[in-house]
Amino acid sequence: MIEIRKQPQVSDAWSKSAYEDIYAGPGIRQTDSFYAWLLKLIRPKPGRRMLDVSCGEGRLAQLAAQMGVVAYGVDLSEAALRIANAESTERRFVLGDAQRLPFADASFDYITNIGSLEHYLDPGQGAREITRLLTPGGLACILLPNTYSLLDNLWYAFRFGRTLEDNQPIQRYASRYEWQDLLEANGLRVERTIKYEREFPTRLADVGFYLRHPKPLIRLLLTPLVPLNLAACLVYLCRRRDDVVNG
Predict the structure, then answer these.
(1) For 182-241, how does the pLDDT look when each residue is reduced to its tens digit (9 = 90+)?
(2) Could you say which DSSP state residue 44 is in?
(3) Which of 36, 64, 88, 231 lies in the 20 to 30 Å Cα band around 51?
(4) What is the pLDDT of residues 109-122, one digit of tens each?
(5) CATH 3.40.140.20 fits 11-240, yes or no
(6) d(CA 191, CA 240)
(7) Within the chain, how many helices (H) and strands (E) appear?
(8) How far apart (Å, rounded) are the C-alpha atoms in residues 189 and 43?
(9) In which residue ranges of the chain is pLDDT below 50?
């Protein structure tokens, strides 16, 4: 596993402050087509409970709620949650630390963690919290970055001789089975792994994004040629291990 820290000692308070600055500025948000792609993988049923851990501006939970899902979000950034609550009629967004989630055991049928677990001080504890909150038979969807991304880290290293950074307080990369080992050591059982490079646009606005940005479009066209083990990101669909009783 590769770990990059912005400073040698990163505390919870410093990390929270960094994310407040991020969401007070440009924020972090993907296209609606990306979130729709994730929901298509999860296939949540109306009336079931879903939690998006480290939800940021809350768009994934908002789109799930439009499908009739009882969707919640939790994030440590107050600035992010102000945006999420302002854009949502349900206002089910909660301030909290993903390593100490403020919910009871077995509270959610679906839990998502999209590109966030790798930024925690303790990713294993984050995975244990997901396990704790997942109902028996519930589904977790976790997206993580690959060390050996053909079109990201390997290409960047080839060009610049460095590891690609994303300007967050802590960044980690691991390979497909290294991430799977971490998830399964902390109570989850990986049922399926899916590669992610770029999402096919299913919204008109996102078609416009690709037309304005040729590099992501080229990447989208190359996606079928990229092997799973060399994908930019890996999406793990997981359930709670059978031997785990209370997370």
Answers:
(1) 999 999 999 999 999 999 999 999 999 999 999 999 999 999 999 999 999 999 999 999
(2) P
(3) 231
(4) 999 999 999 999 99
(5) no
(6) 10
(7) 9, 9
(8) 18
(9) 247
For residue 247, the model assigns a pLDDT of 47
Report the distance separating Cα 246 and Cα 135, nearest Å: 9
For the chain, how big is the Rg over CA atoms in Å?
17
Q: Are 44 and 37 in contact (CB under 8 A)?
A: no
174 near 144, Cβ under 8 Å?
yes
Q: CB-based contacts of 59: which residues, under 8 Å, 6+ apart?
A: 29, 30, 32, 35, 87
- Determine how β-strand 188-196 pairs with β-strand 233-240: antiparallel
State residue 114 phi and psi, 5-degree precision.
-110, 100
Question: How far from 23 is each of 16, 40, 50, 80, CA to CA, in Å?
Answer: 11, 27, 23, 5
Q: Which two tokens stand for residue 130?
A: 């997901």
pLDDT recorded at residue 113? 98
Angle at 195 between CA 189 and CA 200, to 5 degrees: 130
Q: Do 67 and 88 touch, CB atoms closer than 8 A?
A: no
CB atoms within 10 A of CB 18: 18
Task: Provide the whole-model pTM.
Answer: 0.94
